[in-house]
Write a structure and sequence with these properties.
- By secondary structure, the protein is an all-alpha fold.
- The chain contains 5 helices and no strands.
- It has one domain (about 10-130): Four Helix Bundle (Hemerythrin (Met), subunit A) (Up-down Bundle).
- Helix content is about 60%, strand content about 0%.
- Helix 1 (about 10-30) runs antiparallel to helix 2 (about 40-60), helix 2 packs parallel to helix 3 and helix 2 runs parallel beside helix 5.
- It is globular, with a radius of gyration of 15 Å.
- The model has no long low-confidence stretch (mean pLDDT about 90).
């Protein structure tokens, strides 16, 4: 039996889902099971999910994207190529701070926004899944 080779956008989508599941699992552990961790780790996974979902869409459209974690740069590529995903996509922009900086310092401004990010990422995930 031959193994199907996955396309880049399929791999990105799978990895985005894994980041989303990890973030929700860690958040639940923190909120309900006494898991001790820096909350920035959860938001790092939210950021990674958003980044990979946007890169999935860009790849589906054969648009080259730079090696970047900056969601604004990636969203600009969507806009330049007239790809609209949903109205509130830009509300994910603050997650960029958690891509690299959040791994090395403590950022606490958006930590109460986890429910908002889960909703936004669920929406984005559904839209990207429909494009696959």
């Amino acid at each position: 039996m031959a193994t199907k080779l996955l396309k880049q956008h399929e791999i990105l989508f799978i990895k985005a889902k894994e980041d989303f599941v990890a973030a929700k699992y860690l958040l639940d552990g923190f909120n309900h099971h006494g898991l001790e961790l820096n909350l920035e780790i959860i938001f790092f996974h939210f950021q990674q999910c958003a980044e990979k979902l946007i890169k999935t869409v860009l790849d589906i459209h054969n648009i080259k994207f730079p090696h970047t974690h900056d969601l604004d740069n990636l969203m600009t590529l969507l806009e330049e190529n007239e790809i609209f995903l949903f109205d509130d996509l830009e509300e994910l922009l603050p997650l960029t701070d958690f891509a690299v900086e959040g791994r090395y310092s403590i950022i606490h401004d958006d930590l109460n926004d986890s429910d908002k990010y889960i909703t936004l990422l669920n929406t984005l995930m559904e839209i990207v899944a429909a494009k696959m």
